[in-house]
Amino acid sequence: MTTYESSIKQVYAPQGAVYAKLSDLTHLSVIKERMDDPAFASAVAAQVPADKLEQLRTAVEGLDFSPDTVTVTNSPIGPVTLAIVERDEPKCVKFELQNAPIKGNLWIQMLPTSDTTSKMRCTVGVDMNFFMRKMIEKQLKEGVEKLAEMLSRIPYGY
Q1: Are the C-beta atoms of 156 and 21 separated by less than 8 Å?
Q2: DSSP string, 12-59
Q3: What is the pTM of this model?
Q4: In the chain, what are the domains?
């Protein structure tokens, strides 16, 4: 299994608030709901290239959330699920890909830096052959970094 780690990101919320939100995936369903808000959609459009905006909107519409899973229902290969397989309160949430053509996992680690801030790192592990790895390695490195950046900016509401 090949692993890709993000840089450490500063989060302006306490470790417990970050863990609470990320360990119950229904909290992330707000992403889907906010896509209908014109102000939010405008802010997203300002950050996403125009040719990718409709693709992003379609992807978000195809997300289904439960406390333990996020399922992409409109994937070209059928439904693919990211499921929580381990919780280590308040330090780490571990996920695993299910119903996907490759084996993969995601770890989100959180550490306190003060009473009101914390830091986070994301690690993605993917089990794939050499040729496949060489084809998508750059996207995986960029993807784990973008995921960590996005998660560090979520309003954790403590």
Answers
A1: yes
A2: SS-HHHHHHHHTSGGGGGHHHHHTTSHHHHHHHHHHS-HHHHHHHHHH
A3: 0.83
A4: 2-153 (3.30.530.20)
